[in-house]
Fold this sequence. Notes:
The protein is an alpha/beta fold. It has 6 helices and 8 strands.
Amino acid sequence: xxxxxxxxxxxxxxxxxxxxxxxxxxxxxxxxxxxxxxxxxxxxxxxxxxxxxxxxxxxxxxxxxxxxxxxxxxxxxxxxxxxxxxxxxxxxxxxxxxxxxxxxxxxxxxxxxxxxxxxxxxxxxxxxxxxxxxxxxxxxxxxxxxxxxxxxxxxxxxxxxxxxxxxxxxxxxxxxxxxx
Length: 180
């Protein structure tokens, strides 16, 4: 029996060396510091950690900073509709990730040259919203981008990902647990 290995992304807003070091080695990090100004030296430490430990490192919504820090790519949130980055020179292996909640946002992400699309929220979250499996699959079929499941993923529903057969999944609290 063949077991599909899912791509995994962990949204982070602080650098915790010991926790990150003990996580599964195939987890990539997406820096998203919404609330406060990011200190450049923190990002440099994270980048160096990722390079040393053969992990991928992405920065949210700041393509110039991602290029400057030689990150693996940038993550563009669903609220970011900016198309200006299309004219920026990107290195060969620079990846553009993005998120969407509906068809309109998917089409914007296609114009932004996104390679992997985070479709969310798959499962119920605190605010009681979710795509549900049927709508998720409908959105997945509407694009050529690789799909990443996001939203409400936890230890009790992780096995349900098989129902949508995603390319990968992303989470915050799921990976905050030690030893995953």
